[in-house]
Design brief:
Distance between the termini: 48 Å
Strand order of the largest sheet: 1-2-10-7-8-9
Radius of gyration: 19 Å
Number of helices: 13
Number of strands: 10
Strand content: 5-15%
Structural class: alpha/beta
């Protein structure tokens, strides 16, 4: 599919500084705090900072993508505020949540195709906020039954019936990465006063990593951009060798790609300096450690990101500043990451307070 270049935003949709009144949901998206991760910083002699995206209105970094994609469609005239419209997307959950909340605020409907294998909490939350769900079997991207292809066909059928509809297409819609380049990256730069030596981030659509990488590199080409990849994903191999090759598996949701490079990530390859691969036990160690020692409850993708930041910090040596993304909150994975039975069945560590 031809990638659609995003239209330039009239102005960033980030919220004003703390203490100001914002206009509706869109005004509340953005300006999340940058949190110093005390134990990771102490262990490495570096400053390891996490962008607290779990504090977004919809609970994840994907609120930014949802807002960026819908605003881009409105600038194009594909969606018109105040008029009926439908947003269709295939998602592992968080982008669907972000899109649905923004669509609700704009007066649009959402139809979300999501694999049945995603966490019960995300599926239930999507229903709760009014998304029309199309549950799919978990199939590879090469299969027509894959959730992304299902969502595309739904959008095409609605368009053929005369509906005003967009297929959000978060993987290849460059408005996703553009939102992070225009807003998230500059936020990070301003919050750390430009003191950043490296940035680590996992990629599902690649929008967060690509957009922030472009923003940081524009301000300091010396900032190192590191892809954090779970086992079972081929993106680590793609960065290291140029060949997509997946090995192993992971319980993380919404990150990694086994057989393709999304458009948002492909166009940002030149900005990515290296990659690290993180196994589930190492990621879970960070998830559990952050929760019980620092009171920061995050999901598996944040665990991958923090583990990668620690590795990068140790490789760079003391005195550096490494920034990463705390993508979403742990409550969204209670039935998996914090379920002793689920963890034991997969040979994964169970935290003492759950055992």
């Amino acid at each position: 599919m031809t990638r659609q270049q995003p239209t330039p935003p009239a102005a960033p949709s980030a919220a004003p500084p703390a203490g100001h009144i914002v206009r509706g949901l869109a005004g509340a998206i953005g300006n999340t705090p940058l949190i110093r991760l005390a134990r990771a910083s102490a262990a490495t002699g570096c400053e390891i900072l996490g962008k607290a995206e779990f504090m977004q209105p919809g609970g994840s970094v994907k609120d930014r993508a949802g807002l960026g994609i819908i605003e881009d469609a409105e600038r194009r005239g594909t969606l018109i505020p105040g008029q009926p419209g439908i947003v269709v997307e295939g998602t592992a959950g968080n982008t669907g949540i972000g899109l649905t909340l923004v669509a609700n605020a704009r007066g649009y409907r959402t139809i979300i195709a999501i694999p049945k294998t995603q966490s019960r909490e995300k599926i239930d939350f999507l229903r709760m906020i009014g998304a029309e769900l199309r549950l799919t079997e978990a199939k590879p991207f090469s299969d027509p039954g894959n959730y992304v292809h299902v969502s595309r066909r739904i959008a095409e059928e609605l368009a053929a019936a005369g509906e005003r509809v967009i297929w959000a297409n978060q993987f290849d819609n460059l408005a996703n990465g553009a939102a992070h380049e225009a807003v998230t990256g500059p936020e990070i730069w301003d919050q750390c006063g430009g003191r950043v030596d490296a940035f680590t981030c996992a990629a599902g659509t690649g929008g967060t990593l690509a957009g922030i990488a472009r923003a940081l590199k524009a301000r300091n080409p010396g900032v190192r951009i590191i892809l954090a990849d779970p086992m079972g994903s081929a993106l680590y191999s793609w960065i290291k060798t140029g060949v997509l090759k997946a090995e192993g598996n992971s319980i993380t949701e919404g990150i990694g790609q086994a057989a393709r490079v999304p458009g948002n990530l492909e166009i940002a390859r030149e900005f990515i300096d290296d990659a690290v691969q993180v196994a589930d036990p190492e990621a879970l160690e960070q998830v559990f450690d952050l929760q019980i020692h620092e009171g920061i409850s995050v999901g598996g993708s944040a665990g991958i990101n923090v583990a990668a930041a620690i590795r990068v910090a140790r490789a760079m040596g003391p005195g550096h500043t490494i920034i990463t993304i705390l993508c979403d909150g742990g409550a969204r994975y209670q039935s998996k990451l914090f379920n002793p039975e689920f963890l034991r069945e997969r040979g994964l560590p169970v935290p003492p307070w759950l055992a």
